[in-house]
Amino acid sequence: MDMNLQKYMAFVKTVEYGSFTKAAEILNYSQSGISRMIHDLEKEWKVTLLERGRGGVSLTSDGLKLLPYAENVCREYEKLQMQVDELNGLRSGLIRIAAFSSVASQWLPNIIKEFQKDYPDIDYELLLGDYSEIEEWILEGRVDCGFLRLPTHAELETVFLEQDRLMVVLPEGHRLADCERFPVNALVEDPFMLLEKGARAEVSEIFERCGLTPKVHFTTWDDYAIMAMVESGLGISILPELILKRIPYRIVVKELEIPAYRSIGVALKEKKSASLAVKRFLEYLDYREEKRGRLS
Fold it and tell me: Rounded to two decimals, what is the model's pTM?
């Protein structure tokens, strides 16, 4: 790679992560190497790009003006590299994926396993987040694609994958553990463990739709923390069916009296400009679960 391009990437990644150390990890350089490249840029351009402080680094006014141009150079290089990858038949490349925990643990291992059979030299970067974070990462170009609850941001291109049922989880020995379907009104009779972070998620929408107010005692975006709390008898919850496969917790799972679902899809900023590796990867989404005759 051209040395000037390396300097531009060092500048862009340092701003993106707010840290020389993190940028060095991402670009496989030493921290001193990243710092030196940015210092060289500042010397060549006769400006100060970054302010260094205890909390990390921040852009100066000059850096703010020049950053978009450096980002554009890096994007154009990525496009060039995409074309090279195409000519080389996908012998190398990187796919950056964002997902929430249930997709990361239940779908991605099978998808990547099948993809690697045909394209063994492709590398992956996986970011775990909630719906809002994943949307933001796709829009910013931080990831190539992301798994999301649909509908999502209007600027994103999406592909619907599956309807995921929302299930009630109870501790063993709960008074309604033997019911056929869990009554919606009974959701407000026990302490409730709410799976939510930031923007309102599908569980809160169930309560709003039914005109109910739960007794929320614990809120998190960690499915497994909620299962552990329920197992300990601290309350009940509603979780997506996808995360409830092969669970290590002693809990009871029940269908809701009034069925509720979330729609899961994959989203990109713009499919036509995606790398060949990403386009090929999307073709393998039917392998998201073990083969069981339900390819969509």
Answer: 0.67
